[in-house]
Structure formats: structure tokens, C-alpha cells
């Protein structure tokens, strides 16, 4: 049953534990251990992409049933253990509280509201979801995803909350030395999530500051990391890493959106840029409620291959050295030899099957490896064919400025590493095909 937030103000949503955890499983601080896997340095070398349809024991997968019951769960376990860390359990209850609602926002064409999501003990972080939706329409499809510096950067609306947690320096209005956001940043990055443009395209959009779930810095017991058991020595090599926490935060936003009477629960698209593009792909792979997955310029650790053939692309060793907290310690062990990784990013895309995945890029952003991302989509195609799509991906790398809107979609534009209103036009065009 759907309940009107306007009518009751506060909504408590009870959700069941995901299939990876038994009923009544502990919350995020005590994830269930994964099966034992060999240490990274003992794994065999595979120069090319490992076949997504071959099990660890060599068994070949030929049917959708075996994919869903055997190989797909195995790949999820492998990605947890060797790359992103353990997938935290879903909380037993998510409580949503409307902080404000403005029905005359966005040039009078939409409603803007912010919702506080509580999903654990009082000391746990809260997620603040900024939602823009068209006025006077039935439930609509909705884009959802994390943003970098706070909801207040996306609109000048004075009621939008300014984050109180740590924010990276360099974002508008962030105080030097304290890393605290201020109201000076209101509306200064509105082009990255152009709320009115999205609403005028007929879609809702919901976004939250990634740092409210887990601030983007290593070595500090804060955010959801602080809910993990303290380690006597080094933390487990498969401890939940930051990108996984951000993806988990996307799932908490989805928990709310599927109860929202203004949102079509079956037409949700997750989107993110750069490191949050990595997040969007992981969130889509680990939550079947998400109907379309859009990792924008996600690069290494996202839709870019670890076994890269592009000398201009970011390598695994560099990303795990500079950003050690994004991935678990096991993934850092592959920096000198990526051939030992028992999967590549095509398998993460394949986990999303048969749902559409759109990889978007920019010509000048070779660091994110645009051609390598097309190789990843092509290598995921055999899994999509199990679902009856004979041509899930374009036959060749599309030209700059041309949207290949297959189920495994691809787009590359001129320009640099950024998320712009023109990118959102591509996102909505793709969604027009797969969500409308």
C-alpha cells in the first residue's frame, strides 16, 4: 500500500532482509561472512576478460536458470570479496520524515522536497534525499543517485539542507581548514543535476550527498564505517569499502522511492558521475528494483576494464594507491598483476541483465577509458543473449555524439570529465526508450 507523505508527514517503511542474508540478520555493522576464497596472489592468471558464463570450477553456463541460480550469485560473492567489500545487510526499518515541500518550485512546474531517512540507531548517519517531481502527473519514472558536495549545491532554494559532515575542499562554499559546507554554496553546481530540466522532461529525480552515508576520506571512523566492529589489528581484507557504502546508500533511497505515491516503483534509473558512476553501476548490479543503470564516466573500478588496453586510462594500481578506501584491501593486491582478478567489469554489467545499462563518456576523458568501456559492454553481451536479446550492444564503437540506445547502450561526446545538462538530455533520451 502507498501512503501519502503529505497526509501523514512521517512514514515508516519496513523492509525484509535481502536474499544474501537470513531473516533477522544483523544490520550493517555485522555482515554475514562470505565463502572462503583463495588469497589474491594464488589465483591463476587470465590475460583476457574471464568468461562470465564459466563458473569457478569450470562449469559452463548455458541457460538463464543456471545463470540466475549459480553463476550470478557466485559473481556477486567474488565482487564483494575481491573488490568492493562485503555487501551490508538491509536495515529492518527505514523511517522517512519530510523536512520541507514546495509545490511551486522549479518555475512552478514541479514540487521540490527533502526527506530525512533514518535506518539505524540514533548515532548512525541519516540520508537526506532531495526530490524534484513534475506537478499534476501520475506516478512517474525517477532518476536516483548520489551527488558530490551536498544537495544545496544543486538549487538556490533556501530550505534545502546544508551538510554538517565532512565535505571535500574545492566545492563552492566549503570552509578551508574545517571542511564544512556553508550556505554560500547554494545553487553553485545546479548544472550537474539540472532539476528543472529533468522535471520538464517528464521525470522525477532524487539525489543525496554521498558523504552523509560515508565521507570520501580514508582512515577516519565516521559515517557507516563507524558502525563496523573495531579490528584488533588490520581490518578484514574484504571489509565494506566506500564505493559499496555509497551503493548501499542508493538502496536506502530506493527503499523510500518504491513507497512514494508520486514515483513509479518499477521505473527507477540509477545515475552517478565518476566515482559515483562506479557507485551507480554497483548499486544497479546489487538491487534488481533498479530498472536502468547509468554509470557516467565511471572509469576504472566502474564500467572501465581492469585489464585495460588503453595506455591513457587510469590503472588499478594508481586508483587503489591514491584512493585506497574506495575498494577493499583484496583489490589493492591486484595492482601489480590485474590478470589475477577472477572477473572484470563486464561481469558486473552482466549481473544487471536483462536490465538496460548505458555507459556514457567524453572524448577528452581517456582517463575513464571510453573505448575500454565499450569493450566491457560487448563482453557482457553473451549474458544478455540468454534473456533473448539477440543484439544487446552496438556492432561497433559508436561515433562521437551518436547515442547507441541498445540494452547495453553507449554514448561518447566531445569534451571533458564532467556531468552537464547535455549529458542529462542523453540520459532522458535513453530513459524514454527503456522506461516510458
Report the principal-axis shape.
globular
Give the class from helix and strand content and strand pairing.
Answer: alpha/beta
Number of domains: 2
The CATH architecture designation of the largest domain is 3-Layer(aba) Sandwich
Average pLDDT taken over every residue:
93
β-strand number: 10
Measured between the Cα atoms of the first and last residue, the distance is 23 Å
Profile the largest sheet: 10 strands, mixed
Helix count equals: 11
Assign the CATH topology of the largest domain: Rossmann fold
| The top level CATH class name of the largest domain | Alpha Beta
> What is the C-alpha radius of gyration, as a whole number of Å?
20 Å
Order of strands across the main sheet: 1-2-3-4-6-5-7-8-9-10
**SSE string, helix = H, strand = E?**
HEHEEEEHEHHEHEHHHEHEH
Sheet-strand content, in percent, reads 15-25%
In which range does the helix fraction lie?
A: 25-40%
User: Which regions have little confidence, pLDDT < 50, spanning 5+ residues?
Assistant: 1-30
How is this fold's topology laid out?
Elements: H1 5-8, E1 10-14, H2 64-84, E2 93-105, E3 110-118, E4 127-134, E5 140-147, H3 195-200, E6 204-209, H4 210-213, H5 242-257, E7 263-273, H6 275-285, E8 292-296, H7 316-322, H8 329-332, H9 345-351, E9 357-362, H10 370-385, E10 408-413, H11 421-434
Parallel strand pairs: 5-6, 5-7, 7-8, 8-9, 9-10
Antiparallel strand pairs: 1-2, 2-3, 3-4, 4-6
Helix pairs in contact: 2-9, 5-6, 9-10
Amino acid at each position: 500500500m502507498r501512503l501519502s507523505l503529505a497526509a501523514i508527514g512521517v512514514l515508516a517503511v519496513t523492509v525484509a532482509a535481502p536474499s544474501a542474508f537470513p531473516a533477522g540478520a544483523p544490520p550493517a555493522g555485522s555482515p554475514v561472512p562470505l565463502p572462503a576464497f583463495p588469497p589474491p596472489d594464488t589465483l591463476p592468471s587470465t590475460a583476457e576478460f574471464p568468461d562470465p558464463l564459466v563458473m569457478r570450477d569450470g562449469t559452463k553456463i548455458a541457460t538463464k536458470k543456471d545463470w540466475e541460480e549459480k553463476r550470478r550469485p557466485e559473481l556477486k560473492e567474488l565482487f564483494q570479496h575481491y573488490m568492493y567489500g562485503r555487501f551490508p545487510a538491509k536495515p529492518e526499518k527505514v523511517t522517512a520524515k519530510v523536512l520541507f515541500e514546495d509545490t511551486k518550485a522549479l518555475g512552478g512546474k514541479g514540487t521540490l522536497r527533502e526527506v530525512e531517512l533514518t535506518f539505524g540507531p540514533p548515532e548512525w548517519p541519516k540520508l537526506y534525499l532531495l526530490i524534484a517531481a513534475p506537478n499534476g502527473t501520475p506516478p512517474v519514472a525517477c532518476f536516483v543517485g548520489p551527488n558530490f558536495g551536498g544537495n544545496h549545491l544543486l538549487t538556490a532554494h533556501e530550505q534545502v539542507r546544508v551538510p554538517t559532515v565532512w565535505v571535500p575542499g574545492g566545492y563552492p562554499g566549503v570552509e578551508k581548514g574545517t571542511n564544512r559546507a556553508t550556505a554560500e554554496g547554494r545553487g553553485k553546481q545546479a548544472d550537474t543535476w539540472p532539476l528543472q530540466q529533468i522535471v520538464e522532461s517528464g521525470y522525477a529525480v532524487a539525489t543525496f550527498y554521498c558523504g552523509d552515508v560515508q565521507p570520501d576520506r580514508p582512515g577516519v571512523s565516521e559515517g557507516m564505517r563507524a558502525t563496523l566492529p573495531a579490528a584488533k589489528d588490520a581490518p578484514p581484507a574484504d571489509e565494506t569499502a566506500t564505493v559499496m557504502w555509497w551503493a548501499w546508500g542508493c538502496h536506502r533511497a530506493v527503499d523510500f522511492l518504491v513507497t512514494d505515491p508520486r514515483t513509479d516503483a518499477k521505473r527507477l534509473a540509477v545515475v552517478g558521475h565518476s566515482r559515483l558512476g562506479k557507485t551507480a553501476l554497483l548499486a544497479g548490479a546489487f538491487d534488481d528494483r533498479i530498472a536502468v543503470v547509468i554509470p557516467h564516466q565511471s572509469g576504472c573500478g566502474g564500467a572501465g576494464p581492469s585489464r585495460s588496453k588503453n595506455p591513457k586510462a587510469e590503472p588499478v594500481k594508481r586508483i587503489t594507491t591514491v584512493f585506497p578506501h574506495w575498494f577493499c584491501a583484496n583489490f589493492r593486491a591486484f595492482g601489480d598483476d590485474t590478470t589475477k582478478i577472477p572477473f572484470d567489469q563486464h561481469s558486473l554489467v552482466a549481473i544487471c541483465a536483462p536490465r538496460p545499462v548505458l555507459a556514457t563518456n567524453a572524448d577528452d576523458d581517456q582517463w575513464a577509458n571510453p573505448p575500454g568501456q565499450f569493450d566491457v559492454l560487448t563482453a557482457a553481451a553473451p549474458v544478455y543473449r540468454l534473456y533473448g536479446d539477440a543484439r544487446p550492444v552496438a556492432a561497433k564503437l559508436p561515433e562521437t555524439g551518436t547515442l547507441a540506445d541498445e540494452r547495453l547502450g553507449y554514448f561518447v561526446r566531445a569534451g571533458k570529465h564532467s556531468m552537464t545538462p547535455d549529458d542529462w538530455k542523453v540520459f532522458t533520451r535513453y530513459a524514454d526508450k527503456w522506461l516510458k
